[in-house]
Amino acid sequence: MLEKHQHKHAVRDFDGVIEIRSNPVPRYFAWLFYGLVTWGVLFMAYYLLSGWSSEAEFARKMSAHQERSAAPLMAAAPVDAGAQRAAGEKLYAEHCAACHGAKGEGGIGPALNQADYQYGRERMQVIESIAQGRPGGMPAYANQFSATQIEALADFLLQL
Asked: What's the rounded Cα separation, in Å, for the pair 46 and 51?
């Protein structure tokens, strides 16, 4: 038999569990709860109203990264022209000829013995194309080649 309990405080009976609310919630729980709510509102207000956006931050960091990665390419010292041409020709034969043809006549990739390139035929534009790649199948070689090798390959391509 169940005995009926007499309580002088509010009692809730749910599914056989008796909840007695005679003890209040500790003050530090209330302070923590309201503090977190306040912090959340301030945090959202700062990021929503301050003009900050993840896209702008990404663009800023990406431009800084591109400037850092392009700086070594522009600062490299010139080397012997004959050795540089031979190095560029060797790199082209090993890495580029499969897509662009043995003499730059094209194939899977576009022809490189033409007067104009899709992304520009200036030396820095060609270096950028080699280092960072291009959409549609041109891989980036900045992590595989040194700055000197990329420059040698660009000089070889400009002589085709």
From this structure: 9
CA distance 52 to 67: 23
Q: How far is CA 118 from the centre of its chain?
A: 25
| Ranges of each domain in the chain | 11-49, 80-159
Which H or E element spans position 17? Answer: strand 17-20
pTM of the model: 0.51
* Residue closest to 156 by CA, chosen among 104, 101, 89, 95: 89
- Residue 1 is predicted with a pLDDT of 44
- In tens, the pLDDT along 70-121 reads 766 555 555 567 778 888 889 888 988 888 888 888 888 888 888 788 888 8
Interatomic CA distance for residues 154 and 148, integer angstroms:
10
**Of the candidates 101, 94, 108, 85, the residue with the CA atom closest to the CA atom of residue 145:** 94
In the three-class reduction of DSSP (H, G, I as helix; E, B as strand; rest coil), residue 133 is classed as coil
Please say whether the structural domain 80-159 has been given the CATH code 3.20.20.150. no
